[in-house]
C-alpha cells in the first residue's frame, strides 16, 4: 500500500541551473464518475475514465535557478499572453505539492500553456492542464534524481496532478484509467490513477467520443463546489456504494465487450451524477433543454438502428457521444443530420480514446 509520504524525496543527486520542457496531456471522460471527495483530494468513490486523444493541453515550462527567498516565483502565460486569473489556482497547486517537490522555491518558472480545443467550449481544461504541468515538474525532478524509473515518474505525476484537480490524475498514463481504492481493481489507489489492469476487449479499441457543445459558457457550478455538495447529501452513501458496484460491472464489461451492458452503466452514471446535483442543497440543473433533446434523439436512433451509441455527461450541459470506431460513418452522419442543430453555433469536437501524456520537447 502506498502512502503519500512515499512521494517525499530524500535527497537529490544532481543539479540544474536552467532549462525547459514541453509536455502535452489529454482530457479524459469518466464512465464511472468521481463526485464527492474527502480531505486532501481523496475521492469518496473510485472512478474510471477513457483518456482522450485530441483534446489536450500543451505546456512549456521554462525554469532558472534563483535565490530561495521562501516564495514561489512563476509567470503564467496562456497562448503566449499573461494570464493573471489562473495564478491563484497554480499558487494553490504549488503549495499543495511543495512537500513532494522541495525544489520548487529554488526556481523561477515560466509556464506557457495552450489547449488544442477552443477555450470557450465548456470543456474543462483543469484535468489536462494539471496533468501536463505535473509531467513537466517530474521531468525536472528526474534531472535532479536520475535514478527514478519512468514508471515511478508517471505514478508520482498522477499523484501530483490529483492535488491540482482530482480527475487530472486520470490524464497521465493509459487509455482506460482507474482512480480510487476498489477491491476488484489490482493496484488501485486513492492517491493516483492506474491503468486498467486487464486486457480490454477489441470492441473498445479506438472507441469514439464526439463532444457536442451545447453550452460553451462558464460552468454554472465549479466541480469543486459540486463535490462539496456531496457532504451531508441525503443519497451520498448509497451513491458511493453504487459507484463501487458499477466499477465491478464495468470491469467485466470492458473485458467481455458487451456493449449493451456498457451503455446501461455509462448512461446511468451520467444521469446519476446529474441527479446528485438536482438533489443537493442548494440544487442545480446543469442540463439544458438541448441536452435532453440530444439524449432523446440518441435513444431513438439507437432503437431504430441497433447501433450501440450512447452518451455521457460531465458536470455541465455538453454531451459526450460514445460509439465504436466501426460505426463512425453512420453515427457522424446522424450527428450532422440530427444533433448539430442542438449545439451552440453547430460546434462539436471529434475525439477518441488516446494514451496519455507525451513529452514534446526536452531541452
Ligand atoms: C463530473 O476533477 O474537476 O468530471 O478535484 O475539485 O478539481 P476537482 O474536481 P474535478 O471533478 C470532475 C468531476 C466530473 C466527473 C469525473 O471526471 O470523474
Average pLDDT score: 95
Q: How large a portion of the residues is in β-strands, by DSSP E? A: 15-25%
Radius of gyration: 20 Å
User: Could you give the distance between the termini?
Assistant: 35 Å
The CATH topology: Ribosomal Protein S5, domain 2
Count of strand segments: 14
Number of structurally distinct domains: 1
CATH architecture: 2-Layer Sandwich
Which compounds are bound in this model? ligand DP6
Counted by DSSP, the helix tally is 8
- Helical coverage, percent range: 25-40%
Structural commentary:
By secondary structure, this protein is an alpha+beta fold. It has one domain: Ribosomal Protein S5, domain 2, CATH 3.30.230. The chain has eight helices and 14 strands. The strands form three sheets. Strands 1, 4, 5, 6, 7, 8, 9 and 14 form an eight-stranded mixed β-sheet that branches. Strands 11-12-10-13 form a four-stranded antiparallel β-sheet. Strands 2-3 form a two-stranded antiparallel ribbon. Strand 11 and strand 12 form a beta hairpin. Helix 5 packs antiparallel against helix 6. The protein is globular. The structure holds ligand DP6. The site of ligand DP6 has 17 residues, from helix 4.
Quick summary of this structure?
The protein is 33% helix and 24% strand.
Task: Please tag this protein with its features.
single chain, 363 residues, 14 strands, binds ligand DP6, alpha+beta, lipid metabolism, Ribsml_uS5_D2-typ_fold_subgr, 24% strand, eight-stranded mixed sheet, ATP binding, globular, 8 helices, Ribosomal Protein S5, domain 2, Mvd1_C
Amino acid at each position: 500500500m502506498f502512502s503519500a509520504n512515499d512521494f517525499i524525496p530524500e535527497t537529490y543527486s544532481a543539479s540544474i541551473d536552467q532549462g525547459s520542457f514541453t509536455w502535452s496531456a489529454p482530457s479524459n471522460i469518466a464512465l464511472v464518475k468521481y463526485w464527492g471527495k474527502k480531505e486532501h483530494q481523496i475521492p469518496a468513490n473510485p472512478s474510471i475514465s477513457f483518456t482522450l486523444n485530441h483534446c489536450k493541453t500543451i505546456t512549456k515550462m521554462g525554469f532558472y535557478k534563483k535565490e530561495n527567498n521562501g516564495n514561489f516565483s512563476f509567470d503564467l502565460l496562456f497562448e503566449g499572453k499573461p494570464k493573471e486569473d489562473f495564478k491563484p489556482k497554480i499558487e494553490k497547486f504549488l503549495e499543495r505539492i511543495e512537500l513532494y517537490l522541495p525544489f520548487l522555491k529554488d526556481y523561477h518558472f515560466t509556464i506557457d500553456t495552450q489547449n488544442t480545443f477552443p477555450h470557450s467550449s465548456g470543456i474543462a481544461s483543469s484535468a489536462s492542464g494539471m496533468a501536463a504541468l505535473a509531467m513537466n515538474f517530474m521531468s525536472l525532478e528526474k534531472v535532479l534524481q536520475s535514478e527514478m524509473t519512468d514508471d515511478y515518474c508517471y505514478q508520482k505525476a498522477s499523484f501530483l496532478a490529483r492535488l491540482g484537480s482530482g480527475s487530472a490524475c486520470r490524464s497521465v498514463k493509459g487509455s482506460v484509467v482507474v482512480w480510487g481504492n476498489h477491491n476488484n481493481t489490482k493496484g488501485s489507489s486513492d492517491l493516483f490513477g492506474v491503468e486498467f489492469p486487464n486486457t480490454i476487449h477489441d470492441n473498445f479499441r479506438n472507441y469514439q467520443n464526439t463532444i457536442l457543445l451545447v453550452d460553451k459558457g462558464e460552468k454554472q457550478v465549479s466541480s469543486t463546489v459540486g463535490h462539496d455538495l456531496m457532504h451531508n447529501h441525503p443519497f451520498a452513501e448509497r451513491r458511493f456504494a453504487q459507484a463501487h458496484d458499477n466499477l465491478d460491472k464495468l470491469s467485466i464489461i470492458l473485458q467481455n465487450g458487451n456493449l449493451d451492458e456498457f451503455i446501461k452503466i455509462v448512461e446511468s452514471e451520467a444521469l446519476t451524477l446529474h441527479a446528485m446535483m438536482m438533489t443537493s442543497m442548494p440544487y442545480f440543473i446543469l442540463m439544458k433543454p438541448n441536452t435532453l433533446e440530444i439524449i432523446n434523439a440518441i435513444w431513438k436512433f439507437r432503437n431504430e438502428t441497433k447501433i450501440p451509441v450512447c452518451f455521457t455527461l460531465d458536470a455541465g450541459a455538453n454531451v459526450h457521444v460514445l460509439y465504436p470506431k466501426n460505426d463512425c460513418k453512420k453515427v457522424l452522419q446522424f450527428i450532422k443530420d440530427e444533433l448539430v442543430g442542438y449545439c451552440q453555433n453547430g460546434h462539436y469536437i471529434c475525439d477518441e480514446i488516446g494514451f496519455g501524456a507525451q513529452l514534446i520537447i526536452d531541452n
